[in-house]
Amino acid sequence: GQQLNQSPQSMFIQEGEDVSMNCTSSSIFNTWLWYKQDPGEGPVLLIALYKAGELTSNGRLTAQFGITRKDSFLNISASIPSDVGIYFCSGNTPLVFGKGTRLSVIA
Amino acid sequence: DAGVIQSPRHEVTEMGQEVTLRCKPISGHNSLFWYRQTMMRGLELLIYFNNNVPIDDSGMPEDRFSAKMPNASFSTLKIQPSEPRDSAVYFCASSPWTANTEAFFGQGTRLTVV
Questions:
Q1: Among residues B41, B40, B67, which one has the least CA distance to residue B53?
Q2: Residues of A with CB under 8 A from a CB of B
Q3: What CA–CA distances, in Å, run from B105 to A7, A37, B6, B24, B63?
Q4: Does A42 contact B106 at a Cβ distance shorter than 8 Å?
Q5: B43 and A97: CB-CB below 8 Å?
Q6: Strand ranges inside B1-114, DSSP E
Q7: Would you state the pLDDT for residue B26?
Q8: B2 touches chain A (CB under 8 A)
Q9: Residue B4: its chain A contacts at CB < 8 A?
Q10: Yes or no, beta carbons of B31 and A88 under 8 Å apart
Q11: Residue ranges of chain A with pLDDT lower than 70?
Q12: Cis (ω within 30 of 0) for the bond into B54?
């Protein structure tokens, strides 16, 4: 089946730093979605990408749909404590998910 | 809109007991998904429905698991008999349609089988 590899698995950063995480797939994806999960909650959609090469921003978040359609990245600029959580990449139909990147922000 | 509603939020049960998890999708959404989340395996798709019809149940781990969607506003995931290895967080999600679109998740049910 389709597999998604996310990296890094975890990150510890200082408040104010920029963050970059990425996701690669073993097959072509038609959509890339980035979700964030807070403790005790379900994943919440951050950014949706529908076209190869698409670059989309949502506040301090920026994500891109790779040209090969097999990868995507998510950047967070000027991190703040509430950015803490697990970030998942996902895509296609029905949605398959990577194992997540666990982000910790040190104030 | 209230979003996807799952119940119960927490369930503790003894091995061998039947467990039923419930989900109310967002009104007007045509697709409903059940996921299981564990540390080891991450978010796994168990089954999904389109217009109340099960489309793919290949992710259901064993015959002990079953899911139904009797109408557009309600779905259940049943485990009978439950085992300790079923302990996980179970999420229900819904989306407006099946193809290439985002899913909206409920808050999940944390199941502990002792």
A1: B67
A2: 30-31, 33, 35, 40-45, 48, 50, 88, 92-100
A3: 23, 10, 9, 11, 25
A4: yes
A5: yes
A6: 5-7, 10-13, 19-24, 31-38, 42-50, 53-56, 65-71, 74-79, 88-95, 104-105, 109-113
A7: 95
A8: no
A9: 42
A10: no
A11: 1-2
A12: no
Structure tokens that stand for A37 in this block:
């999960």
Structure tokens at A79: 């991190």
Does residue A77 contact residue A93 with C-beta atoms inside 8 Å?
Answer: no
Q: CA–CA separation, A84 vs B17, rounded Å? A: 37
B50 touches chain A (CB under 8 A): no
Question: Which residue of B lies nearest to A51 if distances are taken between CA atoms?
Answer: B100
pLDDT digit string, tens, across residues A10-31:
999 999 999 999 999 989 988 9
Residue B45: list chain A partners with CB under 8 A. Answer: 94-96
How far apart, in whole angstroms, are the C-alpha atoms of residue A11 and residue A18? 11
Tell me how far CA of residue A59 lies from CA of A42, A45, A79, B65, B93, in angstroms: 21, 14, 12, 41, 25
Rounded average pLDDT over B16-43? 95
| A88 touches A98 (CB < 8 A) | yes
Instruction: Kindly state the tokens that stand for B22.
Output: 């419930």
The type of residue at B36 is R
Look-up of token digits 């996902």: A90
The CB density around residue A48, as the number of other CB atoms within 10 Å, is 20
